[in-house]
Write a structure and sequence with these properties.
Layout (H helix, E strand, L loop, with lengths): L1 H22 L17 H4 L4 E5 L1 H6 L1 H10 L2 E4 L5 H4 L9 H12 L3 E8 L6 H4 L5 H18 L6 E6 L12 H5 L4 H12 L4 E6 L6 H16 L6 E4 L2 E3 L4 H12 L4 E10 L12 H19 L6 E6 L30 H10 L4
Parallel strand pairs: 1-2, 1-9, 2-3, 3-4, 4-5, 5-6, 6-8, 7-8, 8-9
Bound molecules: ligand G3I.
Length: about 350
Amino acid sequence: MMIFFKYKTFSIISVSFFCLAISNCSFVSNANSIGQVDTTLKAIAPFPVGGAVKINLLRNDRLYRNLLIKEYNSLTAENAMKFVALHPGKDSYRWEDADYIVNFALDNNIRVHGHTLIWPRVNPPWVTTFKGSRNDWKRMLKTHIQTVVKHFKGKVKSWDVVNEAFEDNGTYKDNVWLRNIGKDYIELCFKYAREADPNVLLFYNDYGHEYSTKKLQAVLNLVKDFKSRNIPIDGLGLQMHTVVRVTDLKIKNAINAVASTGLLIHLSELEVAINYQQPKSFIPDKTLLDRQASKYASIVKAYLSIPKKQQYGITTWNVGDKDSWKNSKGRNHDHPLLFDYQYQPKPAYKAFKLAAEGKQ
Ligand code: G3I
Protein backbone atom coordinates (compact mmCIF):
# COMPACT_ATOMS: atom_id res chain seq x y z
CA MET A 1 0.00 0.00 0.00
CA MET A 2 2.83 2.25 1.01
CA ILE A 3 4.50 1.63 -2.33
CA PHE A 4 1.31 2.52 -4.14
CA PHE A 5 0.86 5.58 -1.97
CA LYS A 6 4.51 6.58 -2.49
CA TYR A 7 4.18 6.31 -6.28
CA LYS A 8 0.78 7.99 -6.12
CA THR A 9 2.31 10.89 -4.25
CA PHE A 10 5.18 10.99 -6.70
CA SER A 11 2.83 10.94 -9.66
CA ILE A 12 0.74 13.81 -8.23
CA ILE A 13 3.84 15.91 -7.64
CA SER A 14 5.26 15.14 -11.06
CA VAL A 15 1.96 15.87 -12.78
CA SER A 16 1.71 19.14 -10.89
CA PHE A 17 5.19 20.18 -11.98
CA PHE A 18 4.36 19.08 -15.50
CA CYS A 19 1.23 21.23 -15.56
CA LEU A 20 3.14 24.18 -14.11
CA ALA A 21 5.83 23.71 -16.75
CA ILE A 22 3.27 23.50 -19.52
CA SER A 23 1.44 26.60 -18.37
CA ASN A 24 4.67 28.52 -18.83
CA CYS A 25 4.93 27.33 -22.40
CA SER A 26 3.57 29.49 -25.17
CA PHE A 27 1.31 26.76 -26.56
CA VAL A 28 -1.10 26.95 -23.59
CA SER A 29 -3.37 29.32 -25.43
CA ASN A 30 -4.75 31.25 -22.47
CA ALA A 31 -1.70 31.55 -20.24
CA ASN A 32 -0.27 35.03 -19.75
CA SER A 33 3.39 35.83 -19.09
CA ILE A 34 3.25 34.79 -15.42
CA GLY A 35 1.41 31.53 -16.11
CA GLN A 36 -2.02 32.82 -15.11
CA VAL A 37 -4.71 31.31 -17.33
CA ASP A 38 -6.84 33.98 -19.05
CA THR A 39 -10.47 32.97 -18.58
CA THR A 40 -12.12 35.90 -20.33
CA LEU A 41 -14.73 35.62 -23.09
CA LYS A 42 -12.21 36.41 -25.81
CA ALA A 43 -9.67 33.93 -24.44
CA ILE A 44 -12.12 31.08 -24.01
CA ALA A 45 -14.29 31.42 -27.13
CA PRO A 46 -12.91 29.90 -30.38
CA PHE A 47 -14.67 32.72 -32.28
CA PRO A 48 -14.57 36.54 -31.94
CA VAL A 49 -16.72 37.89 -29.10
CA GLY A 50 -18.07 41.40 -29.45
CA GLY A 51 -20.25 44.01 -27.88
CA ALA A 52 -22.23 46.94 -29.29
CA VAL A 53 -20.69 50.03 -27.74
CA LYS A 54 -22.09 53.38 -26.68
CA ILE A 55 -19.81 56.31 -27.52
CA ASN A 56 -20.63 58.29 -24.38
CA LEU A 57 -19.69 55.37 -22.11
CA LEU A 58 -16.58 54.66 -24.12
CA ARG A 59 -15.47 58.27 -23.72
CA ASN A 60 -16.41 58.69 -20.06
CA ASP A 61 -16.68 55.36 -18.20
CA ARG A 62 -13.35 53.75 -17.21
CA LEU A 63 -14.98 50.57 -15.87
CA TYR A 64 -16.86 50.14 -19.18
CA ARG A 65 -13.72 50.71 -21.25
CA ASN A 66 -11.65 48.31 -19.16
CA LEU A 67 -14.32 45.61 -19.36
CA LEU A 68 -14.38 45.93 -23.16
CA ILE A 69 -10.59 45.67 -23.35
CA LYS A 70 -10.51 42.70 -20.96
CA GLU A 71 -13.38 40.59 -22.34
CA TYR A 72 -13.88 41.45 -26.04
CA ASN A 73 -11.90 41.16 -29.30
CA SER A 74 -14.60 42.64 -31.54
CA LEU A 75 -16.92 45.61 -31.31
CA THR A 76 -19.78 47.23 -33.16
CA ALA A 77 -20.78 50.90 -32.83
CA GLU A 78 -24.35 50.83 -31.52
CA ASN A 79 -25.26 54.12 -33.25
CA ALA A 80 -22.17 56.12 -34.17
CA MET A 81 -21.72 54.66 -37.65
CA LYS A 82 -25.30 54.86 -38.82
CA PHE A 83 -26.30 57.12 -41.74
CA VAL A 84 -28.00 59.61 -39.44
CA ALA A 85 -24.91 59.88 -37.22
CA LEU A 86 -22.22 60.06 -39.91
CA HIS A 87 -24.02 62.07 -42.59
CA PRO A 88 -26.36 64.57 -40.93
CA GLY A 89 -26.40 66.99 -43.88
CA LYS A 90 -26.24 66.44 -47.66
CA ASP A 91 -22.71 67.86 -47.79
CA SER A 92 -21.67 67.36 -44.16
CA TYR A 93 -20.24 64.33 -42.38
CA ARG A 94 -19.53 63.82 -38.66
CA TRP A 95 -16.62 61.41 -38.10
CA GLU A 96 -15.57 62.27 -34.54
CA ASP A 97 -17.54 59.65 -32.60
CA ALA A 98 -16.98 56.83 -35.07
CA ASP A 99 -13.28 57.66 -35.36
CA TYR A 100 -12.98 57.62 -31.57
CA ILE A 101 -14.52 54.15 -31.43
CA VAL A 102 -12.36 52.84 -34.28
CA ASN A 103 -9.17 54.28 -32.76
CA PHE A 104 -10.04 52.78 -29.35
CA ALA A 105 -10.56 49.41 -31.01
CA LEU A 106 -7.36 49.51 -33.06
CA ASP A 107 -5.35 50.69 -30.02
CA ASN A 108 -6.62 47.64 -28.11
CA ASN A 109 -6.38 45.06 -30.91
CA ILE A 110 -10.16 44.82 -31.16
CA ARG A 111 -11.85 44.09 -34.50
CA VAL A 112 -14.41 46.62 -35.76
CA HIS A 113 -17.66 45.54 -37.43
CA GLY A 114 -19.37 48.48 -39.14
CA HIS A 115 -23.07 49.02 -38.48
CA THR A 116 -24.74 49.98 -40.76
CA LEU A 117 -24.34 51.58 -44.19
CA ILE A 118 -28.03 51.53 -45.12
CA TRP A 119 -30.90 50.91 -42.74
CA PRO A 120 -34.20 51.84 -44.33
CA ARG A 121 -35.54 52.96 -40.95
CA VAL A 122 -32.92 55.40 -39.69
CA ASN A 123 -32.21 58.24 -42.13
CA PRO A 124 -31.61 61.98 -41.56
CA PRO A 125 -34.37 64.43 -42.54
CA TRP A 126 -32.46 65.65 -45.60
CA VAL A 127 -32.75 62.11 -47.01
CA THR A 128 -36.37 61.44 -46.11
CA THR A 129 -37.43 64.79 -47.62
CA PHE A 130 -35.15 64.56 -50.69
CA LYS A 131 -36.82 65.01 -54.09
CA GLY A 132 -35.11 63.71 -57.21
CA SER A 133 -35.00 61.20 -60.05
CA ARG A 134 -34.10 57.54 -59.64
CA ASN A 135 -30.58 58.39 -60.77
CA ASP A 136 -30.41 61.20 -58.20
CA TRP A 137 -31.35 58.69 -55.46
CA LYS A 138 -28.81 56.16 -56.76
CA ARG A 139 -26.14 58.87 -56.75
CA MET A 140 -27.02 59.79 -53.16
CA LEU A 141 -26.87 56.15 -52.08
CA LYS A 142 -23.51 55.60 -53.84
CA THR A 143 -21.99 58.80 -52.45
CA HIS A 144 -22.90 57.91 -48.86
CA ILE A 145 -21.74 54.30 -49.04
CA GLN A 146 -18.48 54.99 -50.86
CA THR A 147 -17.56 58.03 -48.73
CA VAL A 148 -18.07 56.02 -45.52
CA VAL A 149 -16.42 52.79 -46.68
CA LYS A 150 -13.39 54.70 -48.01
CA HIS A 151 -13.12 56.71 -44.79
CA PHE A 152 -12.77 53.53 -42.72
CA LYS A 153 -10.86 51.49 -45.32
CA GLY A 154 -8.27 49.24 -43.68
CA LYS A 155 -9.73 49.93 -40.21
CA VAL A 156 -13.25 48.47 -40.34
CA LYS A 157 -13.10 44.73 -41.07
CA SER A 158 -16.70 44.26 -42.16
CA TRP A 159 -19.96 46.10 -42.70
CA ASP A 160 -23.64 45.50 -42.26
CA VAL A 161 -24.17 46.87 -45.77
CA VAL A 162 -27.96 46.68 -45.53
CA ASN A 163 -29.85 46.22 -42.27
CA GLU A 164 -33.43 44.95 -41.94
CA ALA A 165 -34.75 45.15 -45.52
CA PHE A 166 -37.49 42.52 -45.04
CA GLU A 167 -40.74 42.38 -43.12
CA ASP A 168 -41.47 39.31 -40.99
CA ASN A 169 -43.73 38.06 -43.81
CA GLY A 170 -40.77 38.09 -46.20
CA THR A 171 -41.84 41.12 -48.26
CA TYR A 172 -39.61 44.18 -48.76
CA LYS A 173 -39.88 46.78 -45.99
CA ASP A 174 -41.27 50.05 -47.33
CA ASN A 175 -38.65 52.78 -47.31
CA VAL A 176 -37.33 55.75 -49.29
CA TRP A 177 -34.77 53.63 -51.15
CA LEU A 178 -37.34 51.04 -52.23
CA ARG A 179 -39.79 53.72 -53.30
CA ASN A 180 -37.31 55.83 -55.27
CA ILE A 181 -34.88 53.22 -56.66
CA GLY A 182 -36.73 49.91 -56.50
CA LYS A 183 -35.87 46.60 -54.83
CA ASP A 184 -32.48 46.54 -56.55
CA TYR A 185 -31.34 49.23 -54.08
CA ILE A 186 -30.12 46.33 -51.97
CA GLU A 187 -27.75 44.90 -54.58
CA LEU A 188 -26.59 48.40 -55.50
CA CYS A 189 -25.51 48.92 -51.87
CA PHE A 190 -23.35 45.80 -51.99
CA LYS A 191 -21.88 46.72 -55.40
CA TYR A 192 -21.06 50.28 -54.27
CA ALA A 193 -19.43 49.02 -51.07
CA ARG A 194 -17.33 46.45 -52.94
CA GLU A 195 -16.19 49.14 -55.46
CA ALA A 196 -15.05 51.31 -52.53
CA ASP A 197 -13.05 48.57 -50.79
CA PRO A 198 -12.18 45.23 -52.44
CA ASN A 199 -11.21 43.70 -49.10
CA VAL A 200 -13.89 44.69 -46.62
CA LEU A 201 -16.38 41.92 -45.76
CA LEU A 202 -19.97 42.65 -46.77
CA PHE A 203 -22.90 41.41 -44.63
CA TYR A 204 -26.66 41.46 -44.88
CA ASN A 205 -28.03 41.91 -41.31
CA ASP A 206 -31.55 41.22 -40.03
CA TYR A 207 -33.56 39.90 -37.09
CA GLY A 208 -36.28 37.26 -36.68
CA HIS A 209 -34.72 34.29 -38.50
CA GLU A 210 -35.49 32.17 -35.43
CA TYR A 211 -39.22 32.92 -35.39
CA SER A 212 -40.18 33.86 -38.96
CA THR A 213 -39.71 31.17 -41.60
CA LYS A 214 -40.89 33.65 -44.27
CA LYS A 215 -38.20 36.17 -43.37
CA LEU A 216 -35.59 33.43 -43.14
CA GLN A 217 -36.61 32.25 -46.61
CA ALA A 218 -36.46 35.81 -47.98
CA VAL A 219 -32.87 36.10 -46.72
CA LEU A 220 -31.91 32.74 -48.21
CA ASN A 221 -33.52 33.74 -51.53
CA LEU A 222 -31.54 36.99 -51.50
CA VAL A 223 -28.27 35.10 -51.06
CA LYS A 224 -29.18 32.59 -53.79
CA ASP A 225 -30.05 35.44 -56.17
CA PHE A 226 -26.87 37.36 -55.35
CA LYS A 227 -24.72 34.29 -55.90
CA SER A 228 -26.42 33.54 -59.23
CA ARG A 229 -25.61 37.06 -60.50
CA ASN A 230 -22.20 37.52 -58.83
CA ILE A 231 -23.44 40.31 -56.58
CA PRO A 232 -20.77 40.54 -53.83
CA ILE A 233 -21.82 39.31 -50.37
CA ASP A 234 -19.60 37.67 -47.74
CA GLY A 235 -21.78 37.12 -44.72
CA LEU A 236 -25.10 37.15 -42.95
CA GLY A 237 -25.81 38.82 -39.62
CA LEU A 238 -28.46 37.18 -37.47
CA GLN A 239 -29.25 39.84 -34.89
CA MET A 240 -30.73 37.23 -32.51
CA HIS A 241 -32.57 39.71 -30.29
CA THR A 242 -34.25 36.75 -28.70
CA VAL A 243 -36.15 35.90 -25.52
CA VAL A 244 -35.77 33.08 -23.07
CA ARG A 245 -38.99 31.38 -24.23
CA VAL A 246 -37.86 30.84 -27.87
CA THR A 247 -37.05 27.14 -28.28
CA ASP A 248 -33.48 25.91 -28.75
CA LEU A 249 -34.63 24.02 -31.84
CA LYS A 250 -35.94 27.13 -33.59
CA ILE A 251 -32.68 28.93 -32.92
CA LYS A 252 -30.57 25.98 -34.05
CA ASN A 253 -32.62 25.56 -37.23
CA ALA A 254 -32.20 29.24 -38.09
CA ILE A 255 -28.44 29.15 -37.57
CA ASN A 256 -28.09 25.95 -39.60
CA ALA A 257 -30.29 27.32 -42.39
CA VAL A 258 -28.18 30.45 -42.91
CA ALA A 259 -24.97 28.45 -42.51
CA SER A 260 -26.10 26.30 -45.45
CA THR A 261 -25.36 29.31 -47.68
CA GLY A 262 -21.66 28.82 -46.96
CA LEU A 263 -21.33 32.49 -45.99
CA LEU A 264 -19.76 33.91 -42.85
CA ILE A 265 -22.30 33.88 -40.02
CA HIS A 266 -22.33 36.62 -37.38
CA LEU A 267 -24.72 36.50 -34.43
CA SER A 268 -24.62 40.26 -34.57
CA GLU A 269 -26.92 41.60 -31.81
CA LEU A 270 -27.39 38.75 -29.36
CA GLU A 271 -29.43 39.25 -26.23
CA VAL A 272 -31.80 36.96 -24.31
CA ALA A 273 -34.62 39.01 -22.81
CA ILE A 274 -36.28 37.63 -19.69
CA ASN A 275 -38.57 40.33 -18.44
CA TYR A 276 -41.93 39.89 -20.20
CA GLN A 277 -43.25 43.40 -19.66
CA GLN A 278 -42.48 43.48 -15.91
CA PRO A 279 -42.17 46.86 -14.13
CA LYS A 280 -38.78 48.54 -13.88
CA SER A 281 -38.54 47.35 -10.28
CA PHE A 282 -38.58 43.71 -11.39
CA ILE A 283 -35.44 41.79 -10.34
CA PRO A 284 -35.04 38.36 -11.99
CA ASP A 285 -34.67 35.48 -9.55
CA LYS A 286 -32.09 32.68 -9.78
CA THR A 287 -34.48 30.41 -11.63
CA LEU A 288 -35.00 32.97 -14.40
CA LEU A 289 -31.30 33.87 -14.55
CA ASP A 290 -30.45 30.17 -14.85
CA ARG A 291 -33.00 29.77 -17.65
CA GLN A 292 -31.36 32.70 -19.41
CA ALA A 293 -27.92 31.12 -18.89
CA SER A 294 -29.15 27.88 -20.40
CA LYS A 295 -30.47 29.74 -23.45
CA TYR A 296 -27.16 31.50 -23.99
CA ALA A 297 -25.38 28.15 -23.72
CA SER A 298 -27.68 26.52 -26.29
CA ILE A 299 -27.15 29.43 -28.69
CA VAL A 300 -23.37 29.14 -28.38
CA LYS A 301 -23.53 25.39 -28.88
CA ALA A 302 -25.71 25.80 -31.97
CA TYR A 303 -23.25 28.37 -33.29
CA LEU A 304 -20.27 26.09 -32.66
CA SER A 305 -21.96 23.36 -34.72
CA ILE A 306 -21.54 25.32 -37.96
CA PRO A 307 -18.21 25.03 -39.84
CA LYS A 308 -15.45 26.91 -38.03
CA LYS A 309 -14.51 28.83 -41.19
CA GLN A 310 -18.01 30.36 -41.16
CA GLN A 311 -17.90 31.49 -37.52
CA TYR A 312 -17.50 35.25 -37.85
CA GLY A 313 -18.34 35.76 -34.21
CA ILE A 314 -20.98 36.47 -31.61
CA THR A 315 -21.71 40.07 -30.65
CA THR A 316 -24.05 40.96 -27.82
CA TRP A 317 -26.15 44.06 -28.28
CA ASN A 318 -24.54 46.26 -25.68
CA VAL A 319 -22.29 45.12 -22.83
CA GLY A 320 -24.15 45.10 -19.51
CA ASP A 321 -27.81 45.20 -18.52
CA LYS A 322 -27.22 48.78 -17.40
CA ASP A 323 -26.37 50.02 -20.95
CA SER A 324 -28.76 47.71 -22.77
CA TRP A 325 -30.86 49.52 -25.37
CA LYS A 326 -33.83 47.80 -23.74
CA ASN A 327 -33.32 49.96 -20.66
CA SER A 328 -33.16 53.23 -22.59
CA LYS A 329 -35.84 55.83 -21.96
CA GLY A 330 -39.34 54.79 -22.82
CA ARG A 331 -38.55 51.13 -23.42
CA ASN A 332 -39.55 48.06 -21.46
CA HIS A 333 -37.12 47.22 -18.70
CA ASP A 334 -35.02 44.05 -19.03
CA HIS A 335 -31.87 42.11 -18.02
CA PRO A 336 -30.83 40.60 -21.37
CA LEU A 337 -27.03 40.44 -21.26
CA LEU A 338 -24.03 38.62 -19.77
CA PHE A 339 -23.15 41.34 -17.24
CA ASP A 340 -25.53 42.87 -14.72
CA TYR A 341 -26.25 46.50 -13.79
CA GLN A 342 -22.95 46.65 -11.88
CA TYR A 343 -21.08 45.02 -14.79
CA GLN A 344 -20.63 41.84 -12.76
CA PRO A 345 -20.78 38.48 -14.58
CA LYS A 346 -24.21 36.81 -14.47
CA PRO A 347 -24.90 33.05 -14.71
CA ALA A 348 -25.24 33.67 -18.46
CA TYR A 349 -21.58 34.77 -18.62
CA LYS A 350 -20.35 31.52 -17.08
CA ALA A 351 -22.72 29.44 -19.23
CA PHE A 352 -21.57 31.25 -22.39
CA LYS A 353 -17.93 30.41 -21.60
CA LEU A 354 -18.61 26.79 -20.60
CA ALA A 355 -20.50 26.27 -23.86
CA ALA A 356 -17.75 28.00 -25.83
CA GLU A 357 -15.25 25.59 -24.23
CA GLY A 358 -17.51 22.67 -25.16
CA LYS A 359 -18.17 21.92 -21.50
CA GLN A 360 -21.95 22.53 -21.45
O1 G3I B 1 -28.36 61.18 -30.53
C1 G3I B 1 -29.69 61.65 -30.25
C2 G3I B 1 -29.66 62.78 -29.21
O2 G3I B 1 -28.96 63.90 -29.78
C3 G3I B 1 -31.08 63.17 -28.83
O3 G3I B 1 -31.05 64.15 -27.81
C4 G3I B 1 -31.82 61.92 -28.34
C5 G3I B 1 -33.25 62.25 -27.94
O4 G3I B 1 -34.13 61.66 -28.80
O5 G3I B 1 -31.83 60.92 -29.40
C6 G3I B 1 -30.51 60.51 -29.70
O6 G3I B 1 -30.57 59.55 -30.73
C7 G3I B 1 -31.05 58.28 -30.29
C8 G3I B 1 -29.97 57.22 -30.63
O7 G3I B 1 -30.42 55.90 -30.31
C9 G3I B 1 -28.67 57.48 -29.85
O8 G3I B 1 -28.90 57.34 -28.48
C10 G3I B 1 -32.31 57.95 -31.09
O9 G3I B 1 -33.33 58.83 -30.68
C11 G3I B 1 -32.72 56.51 -30.80
O10 G3I B 1 -33.80 56.14 -31.65
C12 G3I B 1 -31.56 55.56 -31.12
O11 G3I B 1 -31.98 54.24 -30.79
C13 G3I B 1 -31.13 53.22 -31.33
C14 G3I B 1 -31.93 52.43 -32.38
O12 G3I B 1 -31.16 51.31 -32.84
C15 G3I B 1 -32.29 53.29 -33.58
O13 G3I B 1 -31.10 53.71 -34.22
C16 G3I B 1 -30.72 52.29 -30.19
O14 G3I B 1 -29.86 52.99 -29.30
C17 G3I B 1 -29.99 51.08 -30.74
O15 G3I B 1 -29.72 50.14 -29.70
C18 G3I B 1 -30.86 50.38 -31.78
O16 G3I B 1 -30.11 49.31 -32.29
C19 G3I B 1 -30.76 48.57 -33.33
C20 G3I B 1 -29.73 48.19 -34.35
O17 G3I B 1 -29.09 49.36 -34.83
C21 G3I B 1 -30.36 47.38 -35.48
N1 G3I B 1 -31.03 46.18 -34.94
C22 G3I B 1 -32.04 46.50 -33.91
C23 G3I B 1 -31.40 47.27 -32.76
C24 G3I B 1 -32.40 47.57 -31.67
O18 G3I B 1 -33.42 48.38 -32.16
